[in-house]
Amino acid sequence: MSAEGISQIITSLDIIYNPASTNAQRQEAQGFLETIKALPDCPYWGYQLALIDNGYNNIVRHFALNLLLSSITSYYHDWDRPKKLAVRSWIVELATKVSPQDPHYLKSKIAFLWVEIAKRCWGECLLKQNPSLAAGLGNIENTDPLAVPENKDVYQFTEEEKIDSWMSMDSNLLELWNHSQITRELSLIIMKTLFEDIYLLDDPIVSKRRTVLISLCPEIVVAERILSAKYEQNDTVRLFVSQSEGWLLQWCQVLDECIQFLIFNDLSNNNSNVFVNNSDINTTKSYYLDTTVKLLEILKISLFWIIPLALKEVDIITKLFKLLTIDDMRIKLLTIECFDSLYNKPYSNPEDNEWLVNSAFNNTAYEIFFETYKSVQINYEDIDYDDYTLQKKIVEFLIILSDYITSKESIKTSDRDFTNFYKLILETTKNESPSVSAISLQFWCTMLRADELSDQPDFESVLPELLENCANRLINYVDSDPESIPLQYLNYDFDNQSDQQSFVSDFKKMNDDIVRIIVCKKPKDALMWLAERLNNFFSSLLGMESLNNLNLTYKGKGSEAYITAYSQFSIIETCVRGITRWQIWYKEDDAQEIKAYLTDQVDNLCKLLIMLQIQNPVLVRKQIQTLVQFTPLLKDLNSTMFKVLERVIETCTFPYPENASDEELENIRDLRASSGTELNRLAYLMPESLKNIFSELEAVIDTILSQKELISHEIVAFKSFLLVVSQRSSLENKEETFKRIVDPELMAWSDPNTMKGLSDLHWFMERLGIVKIAEYFRSRGITASTNLLEAQMDETGRQLKKQLKDQWSSVFPIRATRILIQYSIEKLDHESETYKNLLKLWQPRVEPILPYIFQLIYQIQAYHNPANWVGLPDEVQSFVKYTTMERFWQQGISIQSRESFVDENVKAMHTLRDFADSVGHIIRYTREYSYLMIGTITELEETLYVDPKNASLLWKALTEESVGITLHSWRHMINLVVRNVIKNCPMDYFDLFMLGFLPQVFIKLDELLLQRWNRVYEKGLRLEGNESDEQLSEEMLEEHMLRQLTQVIDRMLIDIAGQKVRTSLTDRQKETREFLIYNFEVLAPFLKLLCDIISFRDTRCSFNAILILRHISQELVGLNDERVDKIILENIMPILIDLICDKFYTDAHSEAAYTLSILYIGERFKSDYPLQLLKNKLGVNQETMANFENVFSACQKSRERKNCLLTLFNNARNDGNPDAYIEQRNKMIQGATRAKKKNTVDGLEGGLGGLFNTDD
């Protein structure tokens, strides 16, 4: 390259990095730089431009190093021997000449160059001498010696072979170590990078030479005498080693000096192992801190594969404990990660285990861990990421330590006291951050479930404090005061409310489990604790407020009284479940005596709870739910349970106070509805006890119903209660009782008014009262342009509203029918006689009304279609349009506050808009119950499925009039109807019914998603930046609901195909997947829908769809069906290739690459098309593809094949930015799992000591 060419490179880089450059100028400059990469002498010019001697700036040098990296990764296999050696020598020279002024990214890039060469040639002659060591024989799980030829003459290498195999690499590293401070730092970066590629990453280049590389690393790191003590000396491999003491000793000598200075400010032991100027104490301290960090970074990567004997010799654990006492967050974090590497792996030698255990399980170690944990002070109002990460890492490591106690090979013995260790873990459980506290919860659950561990005195000593702590956590953090400490931590930890709520739910469940198990193990003590706790709370100011305040605050500021009181009832329920579990678990001789005592105590607690007078209806609702939870324990104590029953019936008819606010009325309605549910729960928990007073119950309920103060929903709750008691007990004349309760309700389906309302849309509207509303509107002069929110309700309107309200409560009998079926079969084993008898009674009654239910759904969907309003007066059309509007409030999306949204709806109740809201509500409510009804019918075995025509009739009812179906309604339809229809279909009817059902479902949902996602894309593209907050909020809300809908469809597909390998599926899942795979008319639309979901701009949905595809890919290619192969090649593979090329889907790249590798292998055996497809889509040449297939075919593991594919993509899509390769690598390192360590026994992955067999 001429001086002019170099000048042009520099000019191009100036243009790219100049903010004043235009895009066109940058593209032209980038285009020129790309052409440089293809030049044969590109590596030489990369070397020349990178040399510090030549005086180029860092931008030019960085580009030059990228030229070298690009050349090595793309063309190394094509170079002749002189070029390979020349490039290697240039890289060594560049490493030697690094300057203290060089930024870190230049040093890192040189290290990458060094490692890329090493991976390709280091130790190559060992493979040539013993081809059996080629890829695949040595792997991370293999620790058996490898057989080799016995003739020692084969180990005589030529000078060329030694040079080609970079036999001097260790010597080169030692020269860097000894040359200067900056080259020493670089040597550490090089070795860290090398070890990451070999041990942490499933690097496709490494995979070809894994056995050699994982044999050489311990040779250069561990002292020769230690290796010789464990393995027979291998003189051939020792040729690659430059120092007998090994790198570990070098690192630890320097680390000792760093520790000595950082703890004691002592430089007396400085024996030139460090490069430091002692004149400036701050510079000296900074140097020691940085050196310590670098050493810990490499130890973190190395400790899990270095043999324990070597680690014991350098006393590594003592060093790590000393490092924890240094007041530097970086050092503490890396030290904890080193502990993690050391302890989170198996050791086969008992002496090694004993060394680890004795080092960590002692009071001195506990104290250091405790002080380290306490030293991390978090300001919850301004959380520091690094400090918070360190705190979590400490707790995670302590839980790793706890595995030594809870594992099958537990170190727990009668003479080993772990009291202080348990206290240490408990201290972390008490952390104010729920995320930190949660880390240790599984440990407590595991301990509590292992009687041989939890019954020991040392563990029992922490139970009272653990019980109190976990009970205090049984609150709803999401609804608490925004300024509360736990919620501030949660808001920091979670970006969206959905993930936050999911975590809080799991967190609460884990704490609930701990409380329940402690109560089960210590029931007497727990009941005393509970009584004292309840007494303390309800006698406190907060407790008295919760009892006496009618208008409690339920969420946010001022909600403490409600939330804390609510949690007390949750704790009672947990304790009751714990006592119930004790009755099942405890089998000792004194069981009956203890049971009698516990039953008496629980009975007293229940009576006290009955007498507790609470004013707030929302809290009363929780009180009633808690009372019913006592049923399993007290069902034989009729006097107490009948008092509970009486209390429940009272709340079913809880009176509405005069002048109550709208919110109060709504809360009481909810209380009455919830009490109806609890009444039915009592029925199926204690039917035999209630059977004895069945006639009295009928009389009481008849009296209540005769007063005509209940709405239809409340009436059916009482009837279903009687139905459940009669059918689940040994009551005589069950069938007659069933007919007496059920048949009058079902008669409503054949009522002339009902049938007329279902026959035609206009009659359907008339049945809803729209004709009467239209007449009233005309009398008020309402037109299509009238703003109903501004038209106040008059007395005539109020009377009409009252009249229609009574009509709406029973407009269609869908809810009553569904409740009677659902409650009667709830939680019944389908093999039980009770269920079978009910099935005989329900089937002949449900089958005739199925057409009516379908027709009801159809009319509701038709009502929402504006095309069906043609012919109606304008003002009626305007009104109907109002009724079909769905208004939602969504946290984080809606601009309007939740309070103002609620206030607006309350104000609307006093205007004519209330008519539209009420009709809209009853329409949506009826549709929802129609969906629920279908879901319930699917639980009646073959009732829905016996007639295959029902598949088309149901789908027609749901979707033929789909124009007005909102995203929200689609989501409910799929969740409540479609998924249940699929999941509950008896396998005897599955093939026939689903052949008619699933293809329609897949095709329609695919059309829907494509249409709605395209609309979102178009709107997004059309945004001009001047939209109002309200407009943006509406757009965001629609997109949010579309994402929710896509997620639900994803889950539906998972129901059918699963997301696991076939061997992990249930028998039903295996059958449904087989049905899908072997019926092309179902499979084709399924794959089309799956591909489209993968392509949508939603990473979560895309990821889940790819997981489905990954686990059916092997079966797809195994079909050897040309039609399926065509879909794979023309649809699936292109989608996956495009996705991996798109940075938007970064989180899904790994799974997509796994899937693509499976499909590529399967289809590549059949034709060259996959090769050409990949080549053309990525725009690479034939040489690149040949090299890729060479490496790809040598990969033995799926992870290696995945990484090989990702490497190809990274090289092809870097758009002139080779740093993309490094970015991807860093992500892969962050995602590297601890499985690597756990599969590494005694620090060996195979090969060491057996690389060549030295036995005679």
Automatic annotation (TrEMBL):
Q: Name one Pfam family in it.
A: Exportin-5
Q: Name one GO cellular component term.
A: RNA nuclear export complex
Quote the Gene3D superfamilies the UniProt record gives. Answer: Leucine-rich Repeat Variant
- Domain (Exportin-5 C-terminal) ranges: 386-1212
GO terms of biological process kind: protein export from nucleus; RNA export from nucleus
Q: Specify the species.
A: Pichia kudriavzevii (Yeast)
Molecular function per GO: nuclear export signal receptor activity; RNA binding
What protein name applies here? Exportin-5 C-terminal domain-containing protein
